[in-house]
Write a structure and sequence with these properties.
The protein is mainly β. The protein is built from no helices and seven strands.
Length: 119
């Protein structure tokens, strides 16, 4: 064999050049919507391990005066038991009262939080 200079093998010689197509963006005029003011109210209580019905008198006093608002005046309502969001079929809320509709009762000292949002 004769001494020939080393020529590296070109591995990309069979790949086509990438096709680059510039994107065109149609400008869309959008309406400016005004933000609505929202307020959030919470009701905090600890389960006693026996009750299914909680009223405003059961509220934790450390959080100040708390109300359970009338559901017809609230836009959204969420109930958390031990930090878990509950489906609506598990509870019923009327002004001043929460009723748990589940078979089991939260254990003693389990936090129950009702979040009420009005827009």
């Amino acid at each position: 064999m004769k001494n020939q200079p080393y020529v590296p093998h070109k591995t990309n010689m069979y790949f086509p050049k990438p096709l680059i197509i510039p994107l065109t963006v149609n400008r869309v005029e959008s309406k400016v919507t005004h933000l609505k003011e929202a307020s959030s109210h919470e009701f905090f209580v600890l389960s006693d391990g026996n009750k299914r019905i909680y009223t405003e008198s059961d509220a934790l006093s450390e959080y100040g005066i708390q109300k359970i608002l009338d559901p017809s005046t609230v836009s959204y309502m969420n109930l958390f038991i031990n930090g878990i969001l509950q489906p609506k079929v598990n509870y019923e809320v009327t002004e001043g009262k929460i009723v748990l509709l589940t078979e089991d009762i939260p254990s003693e000292e389990c936090p129950i939080i009702l979040q009420m949002i009005t827009i």
